[in-house]
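Customer escalation, tier 2.

The customer says the design service returned an amino acid string that "doesn't look like it belongs to this structure." They asked us to rerun it and document both sides in this ticket. The original C-alpha cells are below, unchanged.
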C-alpha cells in the first residue's frame, strides 16, 4: 500500500504572551517521508496534549527544548505502523512515540515502543486496554503520578495527602494510588462542583473542594483539620501557600506542576509563608518524570494490574479530529478536561 504524499501537522507560528490564542497555531500540510533503514512510518490514531507544552512555547532554556516557530510541534502519540524497514517492528503494530500533533510520522524504530497485543496493541481491538491509555494512565501522566507520590514524595501508609488539580490526568491518579497504598486521608482540589463530586464519589477521596469557593487555605483547613503529611502540587501559587501552612512537621511537598502560573505575565503573589519551611523542617522537591524511566517496568506492572482489576480506570476527555487539537490544548489550560485530554484522529 503506497504511503500518502502529505499529511497535516500543527505548527506554532507565534510565541504566546500570556494565554495562548488560536492564531498562535496553524494546521499545515507536510510531506510524508518514506522510512529509511531502521525506520517506521506511523499513522497516528491518538495525540496527547499536556500542560508542560505551554512552557515549550516560550523561547527560554528549560529541561526540554522550546518549540521552533513555523515547524511541526511534537508530543506523545499512539499510532499504527503502516510502513517498516526494521525487523523489530512489523507493519500493523501499534506503537507509542513522540511525534504527535500530526497525522503521519516517520521516525527511527528505536524511538517507538510497541504496545503488547494483549494489552491494547491489537489493531482489531481484541486487547483489554485502550491504546490511548498509553498516553495517560499507562503513559507519562501515570508514571508521573506513581513516581512522584512513591519515589519523590516518599509516601508512607498512614500519610494524609493533599492533591491540587486532582481531577486532571496526574492528580486523579495520585489520589487513587494514595488510597490504594493506605493513606489515612486523601483530599483534593478541583475547579468545578462536578469534579468535586467525581473526586469524593468514584475516585474515593475523603474530601474535596472547589477552589473557586473561597481562599484555598480555608477550604483546606476544613477538609484536613488535622493537617497533612504530603502535598502533590500541580497548581502552585495559592495552593502551595495553603499546603505549606497545612503540612505537619517533616512534611513533604512534590512540586510537579504550577499550572496557575503558566500563562502569567507577572510574578505570583504566593507563597508568602516560605519561612514555615524552616520551623516545620519541610522538604519541597521538584520532579521531572524523565528521571524515573528506570522505574517504568515496575510502574507498568502495578498500574496494569489496577486497570484490569477495576481499582483504577482510564479516565479521558476525548476530542475528535486533528482540526481541533489546538482547541483541545487551550481547553486543557482552562481546566476543560477530566482525566487525560486525548485527541483522537478521524479515519
Amino acid at each position: 500500500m503506497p504511503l500518502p504524499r502529505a499529511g497535516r501537522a500543527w505548527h506554532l507560528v507565534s510565541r504566546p504572551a500570556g494565554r495562548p490564542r488560536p492564531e498562535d497555531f496553524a494546521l499545515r500540510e507536510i510531506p510524508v517521508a518514506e522510512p529509511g533503514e531502521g525506520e517506521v512510518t506511523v499513522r497516528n490514531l491518538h495525540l496527547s496534549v499536556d500542560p508542560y507544552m505551554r512552557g515549550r512555547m516560550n523561547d527560554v532554556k528549560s529541561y526540554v527544548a522550546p518549540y521552533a516557530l513555523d515547524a511541526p510541534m511534537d508530543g506523545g502519540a499512539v499510532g499504527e505502523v503502516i510502513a517498516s524497514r526494521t525487523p523489530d517492528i512489523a507493519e500493523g503494530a501499534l506503537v507509542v512515540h513522540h511525534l504527535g500533533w500530526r497525522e503521519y510520522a516517520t521516525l527511527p524504530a528505536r524511538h517507538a515502543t510497541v504496545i503488547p497485543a494483549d494489552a491494547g496493541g491489537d489493531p482489531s481491538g481484541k486487547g483489554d486496554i485502550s491504546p490511548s491509555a498509553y498516553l495517560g494512565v499507562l503513559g507519562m501522566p501515570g508514571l508521573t503520578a506513581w513516581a512522584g507520590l512513591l519515589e519523590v514524595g516518599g509516601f508512607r501508609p498512614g500519610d494524609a495527602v493533599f492533591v491540587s488539580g486532582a481531577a486532571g490526568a496526574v492528580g486523579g491518579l495520585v489520589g487513587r494510588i494514595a488510597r490504594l497504598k493506605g493513606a489515612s486521608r486523601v483530599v483534593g482540589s478541583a475547579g468545578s462542583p462536578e469534579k468535586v463530586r467525581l473526586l469524593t464519589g468514584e475516585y474515593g477521596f475523603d474530601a474535596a473542594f472547589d477552589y473557586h469557593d473561597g481562599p484555598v487555605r480555608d477550604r483546606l483547613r476544613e477538609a484536613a483539620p488535622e493537617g497533612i503529611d504530603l502535598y502533590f502540587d500541580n497548581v502552585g501559587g495559592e495552593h502551595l501557600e495553603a499546603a505549606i501552612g497545612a503540612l505537619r512537621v517533616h512534611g513533604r511537598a512534590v512540586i510537579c506542576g504550577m499550572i496557575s502560573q503558566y500563562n502569567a505575565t507577572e510574578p505570583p503573589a504566593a507563597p508568602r509563608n516560605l519561612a514555615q519551611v524552616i520551623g516545620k523542617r519541610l522538604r519541597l522537591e521538584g520532579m521531572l518524570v524523565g528521571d524515573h524511566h528506570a522505574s517504568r517496568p515496575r510502574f507498568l506492572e502495578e498500574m496494569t494490574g489496577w486497570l484490569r482489576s477495576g481499582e483504577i480506570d482510564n479516565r479521558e476527555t476525548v476530542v475528535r479530529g486533528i482540526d481541533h487539537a489546538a482547541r483541545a490544548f487551550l481547553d486543557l489550560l482552562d481546566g476543560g478536561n477530566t482525566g487525560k485530554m486525548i485527541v483522537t484522529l478521524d479515519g
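Tier 2 assessment: The sequence is consistent with the input. The radius of gyration is 21 Å. The first strand starts at residue 6 and ends at 12. Sent an explanation to the customer and offered a walkthrough call.
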